[in-house]
From TrEMBL:
Presence of keyword Amino-acid biosynthesis: no
Alphabetical list of Gene3D superfamilies matching this protein: Glycogen Phosphorylase B (3.40.50.2000)
Record's keyword terms, sorted: Transferase
Protein's organism: Sphingomonas carotinifaciens
Protein's name according to its UniProt entry: Glycosyltransferase
SUPFAM superfamilies named in the record: UDP-Glycosyltransferase/glycogen phosphorylase
Example GO molecular function: glycosyltransferase activity
Record flagged with keyword Transferase: yes
UniProt-listed InterPro entries: Glyco_trans_4-like_N, Glycosyltransferase_grp1
Length: 340
């Protein structure tokens, strides 16, 4: 198949959407499909308000439609609700072409955290955006239930995966992290307001708190929590080593729909402590970590979890299976696109 994926999130951004689309594209291409990514890098762009690291495409009339038509796709997937997603949605609707969308982030909560706009108002936009889709792809049963409750019934499951060659319990540890006083409490991800990172750093714990990642809130959090160790970003083998070095992985976010970092940590044998919200509720059972509104309680309960059991569970997540679920959810255009 020739598959067109339209996304406002793409490299050099570092986030779960970009990592998911990149991994799934690689699997689809290995399966013999052609995947065209239509991203902001082909357009002029401006920094996103309150989040300058994200660039928002500035589109000339018809520009995205011409790019889409040039790919001659057999199926179209719209990954994000930004300017490119809006343009692709408009183009498809005008030509009566079916398309799928995805709900990657708790978008209403995410926007509300950054702008103080009530989340209920943002849900109106989310319903409007996704309503014409032939299917809305959701990562977990909890996300599916949330979308159903907000008036979006056509939901298909699209799980996530782990790089099983990279994230393993066997391998080197991070020398800097391993030398810190234990137990070591690790966070990996964007250092931004919507990740609720202050809830982790304000939690009274023994041992060491380690933050791997970067983002706009880093300077303020480093100043506010001088006891924490901010190590910047880690990728590839260095990231796997960081996971292996920790005694517990702490996931304080309330806005993620899945949380790739949780299953990567688990695949490396590290149990997870998180809040009982969408994402962790669907992923973390009592053998692999703990959930509690009090993160200090969740951490204490997660620390004794068996690391071998965590690793075995983490390795049950496959990018090949994720790619197949994505493929199964696509709606072929048939002859409609050529007629358009």
């Amino acid at each position: 198949m020739r598959i067109a994926i339209v996304t406002d999130a793409w490299a050099p951004q570092v986030n779960g959407v970009v990592r998911t689309l990149g991994a799934v594209r690689a699997e689809l291409q290995a399966m013999g499909h052609h995947v065209a990514i239509l991203a902001p890098d082909a357009h002029a762009s401006v920094p996103c308000p309150t989040y300058p690291e994200i660039r928002l495409a500035v589109l000339r009339p018809g520009a995205l439609g011409r790019r889409l038509a040039a790919t001659a796709p057999h199926a179209i997937h719209i990954a994000t609700e930004g300017p490119l997603g809006l343009a692709a949605r408009r183009w498809c609707i005008a030509r009566r072409l079916p398309f799928t969308t995805a709900y990657h982030t708790q978008f209403p909560d995410y926007v509300s955290a950054r702008t103080r706009i009530p989340a209920a108002w943002i849900w109106r936009y989310v319903r409007w955006f996704h309503a014409p889709a032939a299917a809305v792809l959701a990562s977990t049963p909890g996300v599916e239930a949330s979308l159903n409750a907000h008036g979006l019934p056509r939901v298909r499951r699209w799980g996530r995966g782990v790089d099983l060659d990279l994230f393993t319990p066997d391998g080197p540890v991070d020398a800097v992290i391993a030398a810190l006083p234990r137990p070591i409490h690790l966070y990996v991800g964007r250092v931004a307001i919507e990740k609720n990172l202050h809830a982790f750093l304000a939690t009274p714990t023994t041992g060491s708190q380690v933050v791997v990642g970067d983002g706009p809130a880093r300077a303020a959090l480093e100043q506010r929590f001088p006891h924490a160790h901010f190590l910047g970003s880690r990728f590839g083998a260095a990231l796997a080593a960081a996971y292996r070095s920790a005694d517990v992985f702490v996931f304080p976010s309330r806005t993620d729909t899945f949380g790739l970092v949780m299953i990567e940590a688990l695949a490396c044998g590290t149990p997870v402590a998180a809040l009982p919200v969408t994402g962790p509720l669907d992923l973390i059972g009592p053998h692999y970590g703990a959930l509690d509104e009090d993160l200090s309680v969740a951490i204490l309960r997660a620390l004794p979890c068996d690391r071998q059991a965590c690793a075995a569970y983490g390795r049950s997540f496959s990018w090949r299976r994720s790619a197949q679920e994505f493929l199964d959810a696509l709606v072929p255009l048939g002859n409609a696109c050529r007629a358009a």
